[in-house]
Amino acid sequence: MRERLVIGNWKMNPPTIAEAVELARDVAGRDAGGVAVGVAPPAIALAAVADALRDANVDVYAQDVHWEERGAFTGQISVSMVRGLAVGTIVGHSEVRRDLGDTDERVAKKLARAVAAGLRPVLCVGESEAEHAAGNASIVVARQIVADLKAAQRRGLERLVVAYEPIWAIGTGNPATGTWATTLVRTIRAALKQSGLDGEAIPILYGGSVSARSVGEFADAEGIDGALVGGASLDADEFAAVVRAFA
Ligand code: 13P
Question: How many angstroms separate the CA atoms of 197 and 191, rounded?
């Protein structure tokens, strides 16, 4: 059986480090029913949240890392800064691709760097609204998987997590359907196999407007092992409901 895993991607929230610590404590106080739980706070709150969750059953993830180990990269954080605070890192989120210009080539380098540093990568892939409308979702997502995994050593990738996040569903209140997500998850598993990995063993999360109301659709869908949750992860009650749906 694959691991069931729900991660809250807090993005550029909450507004202060103190509130991030408070939210982390609130998340840690809930029964996860055997589901692995993670939170990805903003980089500046990583240390405080890691400290608050030291004895808790909640894993901490970074939202992004740079592909170089150190150097003149203003505004960036390295894997060695993250290691010790977080068990893993998100890479390839569509908002980073959109706002910071990450290409598949960069995502591949980040993923390789994270794996080499012993950080668990949560690789995000997903098609845009235009690609979806054109019927190209499977082609786009398969291409991303193969390109993003190109640079990483196969050893260390056993702990890879993939998040299928269709861009048109993120932050819109309009999630995909479970049936659609299952179809894309099959594509992802085939692409993982093409990359030399055991696709059946790798957990795949769905992300995009997951809420307490919409989660049942994905918890019941074949092949989906959890969720990467944005907006709904900022409310501990709602996040707990999403987590429990996968128990
Ligand atoms: P929302 O849940 O707010 O749509 O965000 C999803 C997401 O991008 C998680 O990484």
Answer: 9
